[in-house]
Amino acid sequence: MSGIDDLPPLREVIAAHGLAAKKSLGQNFLFDLNLTSRIARTSGALEGVTVIEVGPGPGGLTRALLANGAKRVVAVERDERCLAALADIAAHYPGRLDVISGDALETDWPSVLQPDETVRVVANLPYNVGTVLLTRWIETEPWPPFYESLTLMFQREVAERIVADPEDRANYGRLSVLCNWRCETRIAFDVSPSAFTPPPKVTSSVVRLIPRAEPLPCSGRDLSAVTAAAFGQRRKMLRQSLKPLGVDAAALLDAAGIEPTARAETVPVEGFVALANAWAALRG
Ligand code: SAM
């Protein structure tokens, strides 16, 4: 018994199924079901909610999501060694856990959902694919997206980049602009390395992202390209760093109402949206 359900403690699950953590799959497992319940509850009350979980592993967070009332969990796991342990959880919660054996980077999310489901994403992400997945969820179309919120574990350093604004110069960058353009972002709480097996080198943080109903209008692709150019050479003035965009950088900045001598790290999200729209207009 484990405290939140009648399933065996996770250390026993790991031993029974031979789930030694693999670094190549970003495997740092959480065994404390009180902690995984805290993560699950950070996404709000789960009754009636379908949760997408990336990388359930042996199922610590999956169990917490189900024990805390999620109507259904759709869990995508790349490591086939974990499937037997996840099948035990599915049997314990009949009809509520659907495990997809595969790569989250290749999963078409809307196709695994049913119409009219209330969907949240809750995951202790593998560090090697975390920001790619986040960027795709932020750039997804149409908007508002298929999810009501994202509750995600990242290394603290990545979490700080996600929530940063221009006042936090060291962390403000492309990820901050993209995330805060379309979502309200905040760090919910930190998790110490000792909570994981094996422990990572750095502290982690749970981040919450809530989609804005009406983000400033612009194309995500254009915003992505403009911020990539601007922050690619973040110490340079924008009239220099925006040259790779292939239009007259001075005219672009003028159209967006931004000083040509400004640097990327001083421009707020609205400025980048103006740049993305001006770039689209200049390209015709
Ligand atoms: N959720 C578990 C927990 O909290 O203990 C495990 C989290 S561990 C940080 C990341 C999990 O993601 C591992 O189980 C790993 O096998 C899985 N994973 C890694 N890359 C993946 C991918 N591309 N698609 C799906 N799962 C992946």
Question: How would you characterize the overall build of this protein?
Answer:
There is one protein chain. With 284 residues, the chain is α/β, with parallel strands linked by helices. It has two domains: 10-211, Vaccinia Virus protein VP39 (Rossmann fold), CATH 3.40.50.150; 220-283, Helicase, Ruva Protein, domain 3. Helix content is 36%, strand content 18%. It has helices at residues 10-17, 33-42, 60-67, 83-92, 130-139, 156-163, 174-182, 220-232, 238-241, 249-256, 269-283; strands spanning 29-30, 49-54, 72-77, 97-101, 118-124, 149-155, 183-191, 196-197, 204-211. The protein has a seven-stranded mixed sheet. A two-stranded antiparallel ribbon has the order 1-8. Helix 2 (33-42) packs across helix 3, helix 5 crosses helix 7 (174-182) and helix 10 (249-256) packs across helix 11 (269-283). The longest helix is centred in the C-terminal third of the chain and has 15 residues, at 269-283. The N and C termini lie far apart (64 Å). Bound molecules: S-adenosylmethionine (SAM). The site of S-adenosylmethionine (SAM) has 23 residues, from strand 1, helix 3 and strand 3.
Low-pLDDT residue spans: none
* Count of DSSP-assigned helices: 11
Q: CATH homologous superfamily name of the largest domain? A: Vaccinia Virus protein VP39
Query: What is the approximate shape?
Result: elongated
The level of helicity is 25-40%
Assigned CATH class of the largest domain: Alpha Beta
Distance between the termini: 64 Å
Mean pLDDT metric: 96
* CATH-defined fold name of the largest domain: Rossmann fold
| Total beta-strand segments | 9
**Count of separate structural domains:** 2
Main β-sheet description: 7 strands, mixed
Q: In order across it, which strands form the biggest sheet?
A: 4-3-2-5-6-9-7
